[in-house]
Amino acid sequence: MIKAQHLNVKLSGKSILSDLSFEAQPGHVTSIVGPNGSGKTTLLRAMTGDLAYTGRVEINGRDMQGQKPWELATVRGVLPQASALAFPFSVVEVVNIGLQGGRSGQSSTVASAALSRVGLAGYAHRPYQELSGGEQQRVQLARVLAQIWHPVEDGEARWLFLDEPVSALDISHQLQVMNIARDFADQGGGVVAVMHDLNLTAMFSDKMVLMANGHIKAAGPVAEVLTNDHLSSAYGCSVAVNQTPNDPVPFILPQAAVA
Amino acid sequence: MALAIDADLVPVDRLSRARKLHLLLFGLLIFVSLGSLTTGATGVALMDVLWKLLQGQELSQVERIVLFDIRIPRLAMGLMVGASLAVAGAVMQGLFRNPLADPGIVGVSAGAGLGAIMSIVLGGLLPLAILESVGRHLTPIAAFCGGWVTTILLYRVSTRHGRTSVATMLLAGIAIGALSGAATGVLTYIANDAQLRDMTFWGMGSLAGASWGKLAVAGPIMLISMGGVMFMGRGLNALALGEATAHHIGIEVQKLKNLAILAVAASVGAAVAVSGGIGFVGIVVPHLLRLGTGPDHRALLPNAALLGASLLVGADMIARVIIAPAELPIGIVMAILGAPVFLWILLRQRGVVDL
């Protein structure tokens, strides 16, 4: 599991997160939500080792601080919000760069399987830079999947960190990507995702963490976090949570929110 | 910084194609090297000499001097300088994640040249103990330090949060070039005649001063840094996705950056110390290779070494024969060949460079 304790992060002298604790279980999709500037991405980036922090972050019981990048790369993959590519690599070459970081190593079938998984099977030899933003984002997801192809290896869960994975995608690809995350968790891996869309979050997550002003406002099962009170105070506008009739998934209509 | 590709599809398995290119480029290298040994101001023909050697005949005094003291050291120097500059260019472009980064264009060569000139003019002011222990290594060491400081400065100035701004990088290169030019100007006032001659030679770049002595000093530096760079291919590939992603994939980014900067400074410093400011090798060679066989650094770096060596030896051949018996500084030949290519790259990626 992922366990962060007493986490403090300062960015250019300003405290962004202070004394924050966070947990995520394998087999779960754990989503971090909250208004812009609430510290969601900062929390994720501290847990992926991109930001300096004080406190302790554990991955599968091991302190992250003592581990080399290549050791971390075999247990967790990270999908950033946006990726730039400096040189004209082809799609499959980009996926292979990720593949080499993980333990599935030289397996040539993984790259094409990962591309099929994100619905880009015929795109292997297209120049990456000529794809649309949404396609590029899915290639990046395939790269991350190739890196940690087996959700469980040696009895240990792999982790997928996603920073707003669906922000550039149309609705069908949003569902596709969230289903990939869901499957990864169902097969025993762990997923930690920073999300903006509360409805998708409610549909696909097991646990939710609601952040505001660098603090955790609420954490737990979706139904406990997605409440009128929590959302209204975190987002600073009156939000009404509804439930779908048959299978009770909470949803939020922006039309029903009052600023 | 997208480079447009004309074809819709990228060839399948470019990497193995790029690796097959090693052999072809090696053949080119042999061909150009033989050509370089055979052409020159004096009429020593290689075939005659080889024939004589094969038959066990004594070479004439002139033949021996021309071959062993002039052409072979010059060839070896050309090969090493060309390979070093091309590889340094490819590494810098990988490090800065930009195909326009070139040691000559962004001022690393200028910084190394300034170091070299300072060692020529001001070297005498150093305490005798240092001078004696460093000896003839002083100029290469000074050039290396100049190149190193420049590369670090350039990286600090142009890179923020793991992203490189092309505009800042190129502008910083202009500033560093101007500063180095001004400092060189000041030094001309206090230099004596011999030093002035040496300094003029730095400006234009030439392999004419090649000797076994210089080769013994600069050669090992160039070979070691080139050898080290050959292990950076995977890291530089990952770096193309940004520093954060490279870290996520398992690359020790800070270590890679430090080593890459060190290698660039060492190879450019050593190359500049023995041959002056030869530009454009570092941009033309990697660019052509990327167009041909793709950007994978694992194949690009060795190919760049081979093609860079051939290109510089070829350019040196042109420099020697075009106005024989005089010779053109090779820096001028490279600029004539390289500047249009640089402009062509700019034209092709106009609109995608975030200037």
Task: Report on this structure.
With 259 residues, chain A is an alpha/beta fold. Chain A has a single domain, classed as Rossmann fold, CATH 3.40.50. Chain A has helices at 40-47, 69-75, 91-99, 108-117, 133-147, 171-186, 198-204, 222-225, 228-235; strands at 2-11, 14-24, 29-33, 54-59, 62-63, 76-79, 152-153, 156-157, 159-163, 190-194, 207-212, 215-221, 241-243, 250-252. Chain A has a 6-stranded mixed sheet, with helices on both faces. In chain A, strands 2-1-4-5 form a 4-stranded antiparallel sheet, with helices on one face. In chain A, a hairpin with a 2-residue loop joins strand 4 and strand 5. In chain A, helix 3 (91-99) crosses helix 4 (108-117), helix 3 packs parallel to helix 5 (133-147) and helix 4 packs across helix 5 (133-147). Chain A is globular. Chain A starts with a strand and ends in a 7-residue tail after the last strand. The mean pLDDT of chain A is 90. In chain B, strands 1-2 form a two-stranded antiparallel ribbon. In chain B, helix 3 (61-96) runs antiparallel to helix 12, helix 9 runs antiparallel to helix 12 and helix 13 crosses helix 15 (330-348). Helix content of chain B is 74%, strand content 1%. Chain B has helices at 14-38, 46-54, 61-96, 108-122, 128-134, 138-158, 166-190, 193-204, 212-229, 233-239, 243-249, 253-275, 281-293, 297-321, 330-348, and strands at residues 159-160, 163-164. Chain B has a single domain (59-348), classed as ABC transporter involved in vitamin B12 uptake, BtuC (Orthogonal Bundle), CATH 1.10.3470.10. By secondary structure, chain B is mostly helical. Chain B has 15 helices and 2 strands. Classes of the chains: A alpha/beta (259), B mainly alpha (355). The A-B interface holds A 45, 48-50, 68-74, 76-78, 80, 83-90, 93-94, 97-98, 100-102, 125-127, 129-130, 143, 147 and B 1-3, 5, 8-12, 14-15, 94, 97-99, 163, 234, 237-242, 244-245, 247-253, 290, 294-296.
